[in-house]
Amino acid sequence: MTRPVTAGVDGSEESLAALAWAARQAVRGGVPLRVVHAWRFRPGEAPGAGDRETQERWVRETVTGAAASVTSRHRGLEVTTDVLEGDPVATLLTAAAEARTLVLGSRGHGAVVGFLLGSVGQQVIAEAARPVVLVRAGGDRPADEVAGHEIVVGQQGEPEDSAGVLRFAFEAAAARGATVRAVRAWTLPPLFSYSPASLKLLDDAGGPEPYEHKALAEALEPWRDRFPDVPVVEHVEMGSAGQVLLSVAGRAQLMVVGRRARRSAVGARIGSVAHGVLHHAGCPVAVVPHA
Known about the structure:
Layout: E1 5-8, H1 13-29, E2 33-39, H2 52-71, E3 79-85, H3 88-97, E4 101-105, H4 119-127, E5 132-135, E6 150-154, H5 163-176, E7 180-186, H6 196-205, H7 208-226, E8 232-238, H8 241-247, E9 252-259, E10 262-264, E11 267-269, H9 272-280, E12 285-289
Parallel strand pairs: 1-2, 1-4, 2-3, 4-5, 6-7, 6-9, 7-8, 9-12
Antiparallel strand pairs: 5-12, 10-11
Pfam families: Usp (PF00582)
Family: Belongs to the universal stress protein A family.
Protein name: Universal stress protein
């Protein structure tokens, strides 16, 4: 079964921007588009007030109208719609598990700050088994339609740690004819954290910065081989990962970051890097779960 690109819509401007992005993604990948709405009957709330039938009809008409807006622009794109009743987080997580990518809209704070994550979006990102892309409304032209803009991806740890993130970035770049900018940020750890083995690795590499360049090159090697036509820029910079990624966000049509969900007493939380990028990047952001 071919996994669709799935967009969550609720009729808002942000969700319609996410739907438009998802439709372009589906066309590039030659896959179907699925449009979903997570709905719960809310007595006394407009539209329909206490009338369940009227409220459900309004929801279905909203979803159908949203789908029609993309089919009119993308002739031949296979589009399905679903109004799924239930808890929004659970419903969207199920939809994400069945998709190749789940795309959601997010309300922006303005030109400087990127995304305002509600509790639903935050939980879905933290728990989804598949990549989730956040798209905000606004701007004269979608970032992925601006010539020269790159796919920026954050690489951390060992090659196997970032395999899923790099795969997503290279596949996106290949579909768009774009350049991948692979970013690896590094900082000097406290002296007491160096072990004899780590000191030897640094010494063999010629110092901390050459070591980081070598680590990034090794992580990229299998993806360069698999996608030989995708241009790659290797970007190694000292600083926090979130800050370094945001410093190049202005040239990105899409930013790709990984996440490891962290559990707390109040539920799952995404890592600080993904959290910072989601709140401050102006372009769409893909959050890819680590294996």
